[in-house]
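Escalated from tier 1: guanosine-5'-triphosphate holo job.
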Amino acid sequence: MESYIVLVGTAGSGKTHLADSFGRWLESMGYSIARVNLDPAAEWLPYPPDVDVRDYVSARNVMSEMRLGPNGALIASVDMLVSHVEDLRRDLSGYKVDYFIVDTPGQMELFAFRSSGPIVLDALIGRSESVTVFLVDPVFAEKPSSLVSALLLSASTYLRLGKPQVNIVSKSDLLLPEVLEFLESPSGDNRLLEELVSREDTSDPLLLRMAEVLDETGYSGRLIPVSSETQSGFEQLYYEIQKILRGGEDQVE
Ligand SMILES: Nc1nc2c(ncn2[C@@H]2O[C@H](COP(=O)(O)OP(=O)(O)OP(=O)(O)O)[C@@H](O)[C@H]2O)c(=O)[nH]1
Ligand SMILES: [Mg+2]
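Tier 2 regenerated the structure:
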């Protein structure tokens, strides 16, 4: 049965390039994939989407027809997608593939945090298995305090979408060596808190407590550095996806 890999992250975090590059990597490993563009505002995509919401709703048209700004048009477009769920399901059913890779809108707060985004996503996924891949932009990985904020956003996305989630730091080819080293280090008990205290002079009780909570819950423990440019980290990403979807079978060494 096919599985859905849903790419979510802040604007410009690299979702679209990951859909392209990770899709190509999966194909090179012998899996069949189809790419789904769920972004009604996408202007240009590096991959030809197999299923494309812009066949039904285009944010650009909504913007001029309804005289809305870009954010209002995206909100209206995602709302309008709800009435095209059956069309999209029919399009998806034309593909018998191992994985559907779903590229989502850049303004994630207008997608994941409003009601229609998760409704559309759930309707498309149906009873299939799915995993959310949350992309942390490398800009948010430079400082431990920024990483705390990024992981809280990830956790809040997880609570909104309600699907098992893998967290990655995208564009890892741009990461400073010390940041990469931290991400690749074995996860200790107080990993993020220790990094925060050793690298930043902070006594903000909320920040320290949040770092502690992320450590206690294990949420700070698995953050895979991944690059769509070099395809580095793809094996580990695939391994984590498999662990969720199939309980660890079919792993790439
Ligand atoms: N160096 C480097 N740049 C990347 C990588 N992935 C994406 N980028 C660049 O980051 C920018 C944003 O990438 P996109 O894939 O469009 O990001 P997105 O999350 O789909 O963006 P929106 O849909 O507009 O929110 C582009 O300039 C990409 O070339 C990567 O792995 N390495
Ligand atoms: Mg995109």
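The chain has eleven helices and seven strands.
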